[in-house]
Design a protein that fits this description.
By secondary structure, the chain is α+β, with helices and mostly antiparallel strands. It is built from 26 helices and 22 strands.
């Protein structure tokens, strides 16, 4: 990682407000001198990493810190003589990155790799040396971070850089944890660079790294990165927000009094809880100001309630909604339905008797840890249940072997240097890794990656076979088809959502059950219009690739709509309805095509003819409204009749022939037939039929429904 940073203490433009509250800011110059002087004793940790040891022991009291001492000594020795652009010894950078991760609760193996993450790239230390000294786990993580960093962040190199970053993250999420902490320290110390380079790095951080931090659940890093990027890319808005926060600091804040009221309510209810006031960070205040215009005193923070058990969260919610006035529209339950980034909490807002509205977050302490640290809080993803506690305590250190992804047990036969699959890999990351392999070019990969990361919500839908699919919010049946069937989804002709037939363009909702219908014809392919409804990169890339490989089929799907195909046969006999109007011609209405024994009504129209409608036809009310003369109508004793049926089906070869054959087998005459052009591979047929016996109509409709591809037959 390039030494393009400086000491924030030496640059007054680095906003003090961006420093995390409660975090002791290190004197990097003092640490640099300590790094150069080295430890004073062989039997204790070097002074330079005392802060790291203290932060690590706060989360893992029984951690064995000897491996950190050895890692620090190797890093300090190998980086000795290297300086950052600010003039500080380079060792201050891996120390700061490791401290960030230690404060988040990272386990010992991650901290060891963090101290060494630049040694292979920037010094003479080799991966083999790292592996021999610290074990295969540390070697694998350091190798992953090194691969991510081997390409500079030039404009042309960015897509390939992040492609490698995704692969490395999919192999072990700890690689991405170190990368995010590394970027945070560099962003904190960005003042030494030229403004244009600051802006370029800030844009990459905004477009990719911040969304990745959000998806990995590392909110502590994400919020600080957002503020730092905000200060660089939007200095005027940042200054306005800073002025708003400064002005609020001089006013009376209503949140502490509300927090005291909440403590009293929970104490009287016998609920053990910790109540805090959490100030909003800069970007959060800016967003609230844009949303509400004028800010209220309670908008500059939120109340956080921490409890021991999940059930306590709902008990707290009940007390709050009983003793205060709840703002129903603000309630969200992320415990029952967690976010895709592991986040769990109850969100609500309550109005106090004094007229203040306060947002309240309720979660357990474990939820709070995961909400702040995300995947960092999960520890070693390759440890078994028993090894996980050991790793959390730090006693396993860096000597652990690579584990089998299915069992979590160490895999003695596996090559630890080959790519592996993180068993805790989230669904969204698996999707990104799948489609990045088929991205046709770096530009497509880059643009689609940014669009995918911009999706901030995920839904889960159930497959007909009982499995589940994780999809971004707004995904359609087309996305589900490609997520489930891959390239076989080219032949998808329809879907049932929650048991009902629907078009492939239909958007899916969280909890839907989707059954995808595939054509038997191997030559079937997607329509160009599918691209208008596909949201996932995998679906869009697969559809685009197929259309490029079949330009003749692609152009056929985008031609202008054809006129309906009409087939007219010999007209059958006259209507078998009789009107109580002598010598008046009688005709059956085409809008509802009544047949015996339908209840019917007749109306005299121009020319003295009588038109017969079913009594429930919408035209009956219109006839009466315009004053048409009503005439009684009855059916003749003859059983033959004429009817118009609508058949809806999925498009496939020979469909019209199969339908007409089914009609003929029932002894029914086709008077006329109209076939409309396919829309999203759905075809609508209209048949006017002459039946020898009206009682055969139900059997005819069943026979038509049994034709493969036909999903509905109804009376016109």
């Amino acid at each position: 990682m390039s030494a393009e940073a400086t000491n924030p203490e030496a640059h007054p433009e680095a906003p003090a407000e961006l420093r995390r509250r409660g975090r002791t800011r290190l004197d990097l110059r003092r640490l640099g001198r300590a790094a150069l002087l080295g430890p004073t004793s062989r039997d204790r940790l070097p002074d330079a990493i005392g802060h790291v040891a203290e932060a690590h022991r706060a989360h893992h009291p029984d951690a064995d810190l000897s491996v950190l001492r050895r890692a620090y000594l190797l890093a300090e020795t190998s980086h000795r003589g290297q300086m950052r652009k600010s003039g500080e010894p380079y060792i201050t950078h891996p120390l700061a990155v490791t401290l960030i991760l230690a404060e988040l609760g990272a386990e010992t193996t991650t901290l060891t790799a963090s101290l060494l993450h630049d040694t292979v790239e920037d010094t003479d230390v080799t991966l083999d040396q790292v592996g021999e000294e610290f074990g295969d786990e540390v070697r694998f993580i350091v190798d992953g971070v090194t691969k991510v960093e081997k390409i500079d962040y030039g404009a042309a190199a960015e897509p390939e850089t992040f492609r490698k970053m995704l692969v490395a993250t999919g192999n072990d999420v700890r690689v991405m944890s170190i990368k995010l902490a590394d970027r945070l320290h560099n962003m904190r110390t960005l003042g030494v660079m030229r403004p244009e380079k600051q802006a370029r790095i800030a844009k990459v951080t905004r477009d990719v790294l911040i969304p990745l931090a959000e998806r990995l659940g590392v909110q502590a890093l994400k919020t600080e990165l957002e503020d730092l990027v905000f200060a660089i890319l939007h200095p005027e808005e940042y200054e306005r927000t800073r002025a708003l926060i400064a002005a609020h600091a001089g006013e009376r804040d209503p949140l502490p009094a509300i927090a005291d009221s909440v403590r009293t309510v929970l104490r009287e209810a016998g609920i053990s809880a910790e109540v805090q006031v959490r100030p909003r960070h800069f970007v959060s205040v800016h967003r609230i100001a844009l949303k509400r215009g004028e800010l209220r005193g309670s908008d500059f923070g939120r109340i956080l309630v921490l409890v021991g058990e999940n059930a306590d969260c709902y008990a707290v919610l009940g007390e709050l909604h009983t003793c205060f006035t709840p703002v129903v529209s603000e309630f969200k339950d992320f415990i029952a339905t967690p976010k895709f980034n592991l986040y769990q909490s109850l969100h609500t807002a309550v109005a106090t008797p004094g007229g203040h509205v306060a947002e309240v977050i309720v979660r357990t302490r474990q939820m709070h840890r995961v909400a702040e640290a995300g995947v960092v809080a999960l520890g070693n993803p390759y440890a078994t249940a028993s090894a996980a506690s050991t790793a959390s305590a730090g006693s396993a250190g860096a000597a652990s072997a690579p584990a089998d992804a299915r069992t979590g047990a160490p895999d003695a036969t596996a090559d630890p240097y080959e790519e592996r699959v993180d068993p805790t890999r989230p669904g969204w990351l698996s999707r990104l890794l799948d489609w990045q392999q088929s991205a046709p070019d770096p530009d497509t990969f880059w643009s689609v990656l940014r669009a995918e990361l911009a999706q901030d919500r995920e839904i889960t839908v159930f497959r007909a076979d009982g499995g589940t699919l994780g999809l971004p919010a707004g995904a359609s049946c087309i996305d589900a088809a490609y997520a489930q069937h891959g390239e076989a989804a080219h032949g998808c002709i329809g879907a049932r959502v929650n048991g009902r037939l629907t078009s492939l363009s239909s958007a899916l909702s969280d909890g839907d059950t989707v059954q995808l219908l595939l054509a038997q014809d191997a030559t079937s392919g997607p329509a160009a219009e599918w691209l208008d409804h596909a949201k996932t990169p995998a679906a869009r890339i697969a559809i685009s690739s197929w259309l490029e490989a079949h330009p003749d089929r692609a152009s056929a799907t985008t031609t202008a709509a054809r006129a309906p195909l009409s087939v007219v046969g010999a007209r059958g006999g006259g209507a078998n309805a009789v009107a109580d109007l002598p010598n008046a011609p009688v005709r059956l209405a085409g809008c509802c095509t009544p047949v015996p024994p339908d209840a019917v009504a007749g109306f005299v129209v121009r020319g003295g003819a009588v038109t017969v409608h079913r009594v429930h036809c919408a035209a009956v009310a219109q006839m009466r409204a315009v004053g048409r003369t009503s005439v009684a109508v009855h059916w003749r004793a003859t059983a033959d009749c004429r009817v118009t049926l609508l058949a809806e089906s999925f498009g496939r070869p020979h469909l019209l022939a199969d339908l007409t054959e089914a009609i003929a087998r029932e002894g029914v005459e086709v008077v006329s037939a109209t076939v409309e052009p396919p829309v999203e591979q759905r075809v609508r047929h209209t048949y006017t039929l002459q039946l020898p016996d009206a009682t055969g109509l139900p059997a005819l409709m069943r026979a038509m429904r049994n034709v493969p591809g036909v999903y509905d037959v109804s009376r016109a």
